[in-house]
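Render DUF1211 domain-containing protein in 3D.
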Amino acid sequence: MNKGRLEAFSDGVMAIIITIMVLEIKVPHGTEWRALVPLLPVFLSYVLSFIYIGIYWNNHHHMLHSAAKVNGSILWANLHLLFWLSLIPFATGWMGENSFAPAATALYGGILLLCSIAYWVLEQTIIRKNGKDSLLAKAIGQDLKGKLSPLLYLTGIALSFWSPWAANGVYVLVALMWLIPDRRIERVYEEE
């Protein structure tokens, strides 16, 4: 099965997710700079979510590039990931519109957690199809970042009810961990 169609579909969905998020930023009804102040939480949540979608897009590209073969299981695992990613605009909007309220911040973290689990499922499905000696299997190795991220999301979710700003700090920390593209796959290609 050709993976090009899978990549193109995934790219399109992620582009639509970003478009939906930016459309949620409403134009203020004032002409002074202070009219933008109420939009600050909406803008900050958008920036964080844009970065997250960018991280997923980049790493998803690298992961699919390393796959020699795809099958129906990979297609479904990919749809599973895209489903959770498609909920990011909703959580982003709710969190931004409500100035990082505890429940909204917890939901945001919950969706990020489910995205990370879905990414892991896709990664494992690709490895299962392509073998334990595949480029992806060699590249991810122990996958410390992949194991640490869900734990940090759980920490952020718990912190949401005590301090939403601390929770968002944890979400920013995870984004910073992943902001640099995953070079493990590129290194394995260079070694071969």
